[in-house]
């Protein structure tokens, strides 16, 4: 592909990206932000019959010894235990045990509030962009 064709391809991709509707995500680091402890500590680690201090000690040691990221180390340890114990690590299992994770007081209300805020914001933007259509909708109700 010559440089002119590459530039045309780049411009076409750039144009498609700019034409997309904007999206926004709110991301939270769950552990000790929304919950008083690591979420694995509440139900996941105990479901394997493992002592949490022992589990974290082993995974932290694995990370340090092998110059690994701590998150990758505990995930590796979890897979190792799941194979040893014959337990599945599929979505249904995580959903089942995740229901018992303790959250800080007010977390559930916060998420309800933030959803309501964005619904109101989205409706306000829609009303601002399409005032005639909103007027017609209201009159027809």
Briefly summarize what is shown.
By secondary structure, the chain is mainly α. The protein has helices at 3-19, 39-47, 52-65, 70-85, 91-98, 107-129, 131-139.
What can you tell me about this protein's structure?
The protein has 141 residues and is mainly alpha-helical. Among the domains are: 51-98; 109-141. The protein is 68% helix and 0% strand. It is built from seven helices and no strands. It has helices spanning 3-19, 39-47, 52-65, 70-85, 91-98, 107-129, 131-139. The termini are far apart. 6% of the residues are buried. The model is unreliable at 133-138 (pLDDT under 50).
Count of β-strands:
0
Strand content: under 5%
Class from secondary-structure proportions: mainly alpha
**Large-scale geometry:** flat
Cα Rg: 24 Å
What letter string, H or E per element, gives the SSE order?
Answer: HHHHHHH
* Relative helix content: 55-70%
What is the count of helical runs?
7
The overall pLDDT, averaged over residues, is 80
The parts where pLDDT drops under 50 for at least 5 residues are 133-138
Note the quaternary state here.
Answer: single chain
User: Quick one: biggest sheet?
Assistant: none
End-to-end CA span: 58 Å
């Amino acid at each position: 592909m010559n440089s002119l064709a590459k530039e045309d391809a780049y411009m076409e991709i750039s144009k498609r990206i700019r034409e997309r509707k904007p999206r926004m995500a709110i991301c939270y680091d769950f552990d000790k932000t929304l919950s008083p402890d690591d979420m694995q500590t509440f139900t996941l680690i105990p479901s394997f019959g493992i002592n949490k201090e022992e589990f974290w000690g082993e995974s932290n040691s694995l990370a340090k010894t092998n110059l690994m990221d701590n998150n990758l180390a505990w995930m590796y340890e979890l897979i190792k235990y799941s194979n040893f114990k014959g337990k599945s690590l599929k979505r249904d299992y995580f959903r089942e045990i995740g229901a018992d994770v303790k959250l800080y007081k007010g977390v559930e209300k916060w998420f309800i509030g933030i959803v309501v805020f964005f619904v109101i914001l989205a409706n306000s933007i829609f009303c601002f962009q399409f005032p005639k259509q909103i007027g017609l909708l209201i009159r027809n109700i």
